Amino acid sequence: YDEIIMHRYEPGFVIQWGDPLTKTLPLTDPSIGTGGPGYTIPFESNDLLHDRHVLAMARATGLDTAGSQVYITLAAQPSLDGNYVVFGSVVSGG
Fold this sequence. Notes:
Elements: E1 8-10, E2 14-17, E3 54-57, E4 70-73, E5 86-89
Antiparallel strand pairs: 1-2, 2-4, 3-4, 3-5
């Protein structure tokens, strides 16, 4: 994630980063948010919930479309539960 810029901030929702296009394109470019590593990873379902300050995988339209983009929730987001994979949380400093 060297030199990759956080490209999305939605107050009360998420902060997102991991798009390699942010290394070479301005954040105003319409393709920002669509980039990835050139491969996808399988959806790994689990029972972790989208509570405040969790780390999860962003993805495109299908379940198996995640790559390099991740987000941190800024508030609980129960509508995302089961549709996106949570794999970590902030335990201090949040």
